[in-house]
Amino acid sequence: MRVFICFEGSLELFDLPPDQTVGAIKQMVKEYFHVQLSDDNQVRHYLELSCAGASLQDSWALCDVGITAGSAIRCLIKTERKPVISVFNAVTGETIPIMGSVFLLRMSVSRLKTIVSVQSGLPISAFRLSTSSGVQLYDCNRLHDYDIKVGTILRLDTWDGWVEFLQGCFSGHKLTVQSHLLEEKSVMRFQLRVALYITAFAGHLDLAGWLLERGVRTVEPVGVHPYRQWCHQSAHQDTRKCPIHVAAENNQLLILKLFVAKNLSSLACRDPGGRDPLKIAIQHGHRDCVTYLANKLCAVISLPNISLPMRIYLQIKHWAGLGQSKAATQRCYFSSAPLKDCVGDTMLVDGFTKPKMSSKSRKSKTKPSRVIRGTALQPLPSYSNSPWDSRLPHKGPSLQLPSLGSTNSDNEAKQKKRKQSVKCKGGGRLDAIKEEDSSQCSSRVLLPPLSPNSSHVVTASVESFSRQSGRTPRENAVYCMTIASTFTERPWQKQLNIARTLIRKRIQTQTRA
Fold it and tell me: What is the pTM of this model?
């Protein structure tokens, strides 16, 4: 099969078998035209064959892609620039290329983290960068301080147990985000701010609405992790970035409308570089966002007695917010409010404590298994009155159930006696109860056995009553509970109060006599 190959203005005829692969044709073209391809750390040159406007892959055969005899194949030398540095994202599993020249190796780590944050959508305080050997990169240093060369692959790690949470934020699954929120309030609040930041980057309206209902503000910076709040003075400047700025950077018009409708002050919110959302959208060339934000800033706010331009209204709100924050600061300064940090809280300081950002999955933390000890079940007693008694095997004497007639008669007698005691008043009631046998009182109310160290718990009222009535403290307790149990129509607490009152009256009558 004869085909034509066009290379650099020349057209050559080649006899090729129908099952010839594209990769073998490339090798033949290199040898025929003496093509020298360079492949260094920054630039890669390679051959590309195309037919009918489609690029041919090396593993394809000519007959499989419909190339017949007389077809023309175009051959080109293409140049591909390699990334200076690559960053492997442990959250999404993707590799982020950092393009540029060799001079990028002289930039600071903080600048590299800004580039990685813009491309990945993660806030600065939610990840760290480290080399393949596990050495962490700190913001104050430069890349050449860690002997990083062209083509090096760095690693991006997040906080332990946050992988599933961040994946839920990028995918917009509200249930996944809810289920992976931590119980510690300060950390959970930080997680919600991170979630709104990522939602503004990805453009998930449902998740953004739920986060706003939870109280997360669009003009609230993500900040630093609560474990690193003692290092906030040396923190990255992008920790002051707000979700409204991320939405303007990534052309998320619907998210912008939601944020502005929730809080008009977000129109004047400025990023660490002093840019408002309109200026950010202009610099990134997002025409739809620029049109919307410009129309909003040129609108008029109608108040009950006055109408103000939007910019003046936002300036007044800004002044009012500054006054409120200053008053709150003075109030906290002069008040004796407890400190935010307590003894025992976790604090991480760069270079001194082991970082807790290794992207460990929450599922990998195995919980200790609970050992359940079974207890042997006691065999059920067999009853001779049961109709199935002959079918069940049993040993020993069988239990006899009391007859219903005797039980009913005993209950009726007890109820009559109790009604007679209730009808008595004052001393008559006490006399009726006093005539009851002590064995009957002890059978009605069960008290715990006396302990050897319980003799010092006797109060003065019990001692005085014991002297007047001639009973021991235990007998007095049984006597009090017996009196309380007769008032069945009252709640238990009121029964006890009535019993104490009657006993107190009885003591007074005995002392007067």
Answer: 0.62
